[in-house]
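Appendix C: a fully annotated inverse folding record. The material below is reproduced so that readers can follow the format used throughout the book. The structure is listed first as tokens, followed by the designed sequence.
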């Protein structure tokens, strides 16, 4: 869809909080953190088009959504929240996947014309800021119901451009999986599927046709899929490397960093892990995890936010892991951004 994005006229929560300035996409907007059960009402006024675009960032966490899509039917069971599906100790089954998907995402609703609401999309944002375009929402209010814990960064409507565009679907010329080798057939349009386990990468190459003089081209990568704990045995060859032989805390990457950085650590056995971040004065600013992790090559991301949810200042920070009797500390540099 080609067009011009306009921020929503007004965005409020059902508690009466006006969060429009937080999610208007301006340079100073800080976004808004939604927790399981929170409901947001979006007024796109003036209602010239019936489309809205949302950009949110997956912040993890959990929750449940029960019953019909009415606010009085929302329930949140904190006993089901926390952690990540990939760290679950449960036996990987489709039931596990179904339970996990019921505990995360954002439900996008539109009025049903009879005073109620109908679901337009159950959206599962990814780890980083993730945009989606939802057509057919009508000219009235749009409602978002948070099933998981996510951060909204911008909300608005897309006014289609007066002149059309030519859309071309490009089939990958090649696709190389870091563990499975060539997966060109699986990731092609209309193909099968391929699994991305933690640490996996897929490198894609495209060969676009020649472009006429005076024209410009933009690329949009379209992906579909959901988180899953089930890995098909037929797609697991060659075998995943063995478990680590010792505890280790690796240097964060990238370092220095501006917006987010990844911390990796190795666990030879299942262990309770606590990873904390401290400033130069030794004050703890963030506890990234304090839970039991399975053996393996693990990773976490820090998005430069403190435990209070605020962005921390640029500077030198240290991060420390405590896993059983293993303790190690490393330093990292946060740049101003």
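Designed amino acids, in order:
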């Amino acid at each position: 869809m080609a067009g011009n994005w306009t921020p929503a006229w007004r965005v409020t929560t059902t508690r009466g909080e006006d969060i429009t300035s937080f999610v208007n996409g301006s340079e100073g907007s800080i976004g808004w953190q939604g927790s399981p059960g929170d409901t947001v009402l979006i007024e796109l006024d003036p209602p010239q088009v019936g489309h809205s675009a949302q950009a949110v960032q997956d912040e993890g966490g959990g929750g449940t959504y029960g019953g019909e899509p009415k606010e009085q039917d929302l329930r949140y069971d904190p006993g089901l929240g926390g952690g990540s599906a990939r760290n679950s100790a449960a036996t990987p089954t489709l039931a596990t996947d179904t339970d996990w998907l019921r505990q995360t995402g954002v439900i996008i609703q539109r009025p049903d014309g009879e005073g109620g609401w109908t679901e337009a999309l159950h959206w599962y944002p990814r780890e980083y800021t993730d945009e989606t375009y939802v057509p057919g929402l009508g000219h009235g209010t749009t409602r978002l119901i948070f099933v998981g814990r996510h951060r909204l960064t911008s909300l608005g409507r897309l006014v289609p451009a007066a002149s059309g565009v030519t859309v071309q679907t490009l089939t990958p010329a090649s696709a190389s999986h870091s563990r499975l080798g060539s997966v060109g057939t699986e990731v092609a349009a209309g193909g099968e599927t391929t699994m991305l386990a933690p640490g996996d990468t897929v490198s894609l190459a495209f060969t676009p046709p020649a472009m006429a003089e005076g024209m410009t081209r933009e690329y949009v990568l379209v992906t579909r899929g959901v988180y899953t704990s089930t890995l098909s045995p037929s797609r697991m060859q060659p075998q995943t490397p063995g478990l680590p032989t010792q505890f280790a805390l690796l240097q964060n990457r990238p370092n220095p960093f501006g917006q987010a950085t990844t911390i990796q650590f190795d666990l030879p056995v299942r262990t309770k892990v606590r990873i904390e971040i401290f400033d130069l004065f030794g004050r703890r600013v963030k506890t990234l995890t304090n839970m039991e992790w399975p053996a393996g090559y693990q990773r976490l991301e820090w998005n430069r936010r403190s435990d209070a949810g605020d962005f921390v200042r640029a500077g030198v920070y240290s991060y420390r892991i405590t896993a059983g009797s293993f303790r190690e500390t490393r330093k990292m540099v946060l740049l101003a951004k």
